[in-house]
Amino acid sequence: MVVALDIEEASGTLNEYLRRAAAQLLTTLPSARLACLHVLKLGLITIDRTLDEQGNNKHINRLVALRHWASPLELDEGRLTVHVLEAVDPAAAILEFTRVNQVDHIVIGARQNSMLRTLLGSVSSKVAAEAACTVTVVRPPRSLQAEATG
Question: What is the pTM of this model?
Answer without folding.
Answer: 0.83
